[in-house]
Amino acid sequence: MRSEGVARFPFPIEDRIPNFDGAAEAAKKLSETPEFERAEVVKVNPDAPQLPLRTLVVRSGKQLVMSVPRLTDPSCFRLFPRGSHLVPTIQAALSHGVPRPPKDVPHVDLVVAGSVAVGDRGERVGKGGGYADLEFALLAMEGKVDSSTSVATTIHPLQRIPRPLPWTLHDVPLDLVATPSALERVPPVLPRPTGILPEEMSTAVQQAIPWLSAYLSRVLRPGSRTDPPHR
């Protein structure tokens, strides 16, 4: 992306969801889909390349759900005011958004996740922290996302890798991939997680989110599993 001159501020693009030339056009492509048009509640990641899409969500009168970076407290989601004229940055969401724990988030019709790369089967590679997948899992455990929820991303064409990419059971596959010039629908090949897989939770993640262990002890019944069914 750097060598082709399509990377955009903020820099450096490493260790983040990279912003790209044409992000607004990709957002418009996604906004023209039936999934976006019929969605009442849309969860969008707080990264820079998805700012144009967050703006479209708010301006269209839909409910925008954003997450607190790194899920620092149990009220880790923010409901951004509908129809607001504020630019829906993460700072605006933290200042003006309504805090909600996973159980109090409205049912989400469309989830938009930022991507570093996207593979042939809808595999999404992010920054590597696993927070987008964890946010989806938290909402799934509370019934706030389900099989009726579509999952999408907006990327530059260079980020679309024409081969399978690494994938595990806790990863959330994509249904829709929007670029500035095209909209791709991905066949539902990979299963979608329906909750957190405790055996895949690293010690580092649990230590980074102090409230998570207590939350899981309340939500997960002894002996229960959250295996992902096929979509």
Describe the structure.
This protein is of the alpha/beta class and 231 residues long. The chain has one domain: Rossmann fold. The protein has seven helices and twelve strands. It has helices at 23-31, 34-38, 51-59, 90-96, 131-141, 203-208, 212-219, and strands spanning 7-8, 19-20, 41-44, 63-67, 77-80, 98-100, 110-112, 117-118, 124-125, 150-154, 176-178, 183-185. The protein has an eight-stranded mixed β-sheet with strand order 6-5-4-3-7-10-11-12. The chain has a two-stranded antiparallel sheet with strand order 1-2. A two-stranded antiparallel ribbon has the order 8-9. Strand 8 and strand 9 form a beta hairpin.
List the helices and strands and how they pair.
Elements: E1 7-8, E2 19-20, H1 23-31, H2 34-38, E3 41-44, H3 51-59, E4 63-67, E5 77-80, H4 90-96, E6 98-100, E7 110-112, E8 117-118, E9 124-125, H5 131-141, E10 150-154, E11 176-178, E12 183-185, H6 203-208, H7 212-219
Parallel strand pairs: 3-4, 3-7, 7-10, 10-11
Antiparallel strand pairs: 1-2, 4-5, 5-6, 8-9, 11-12
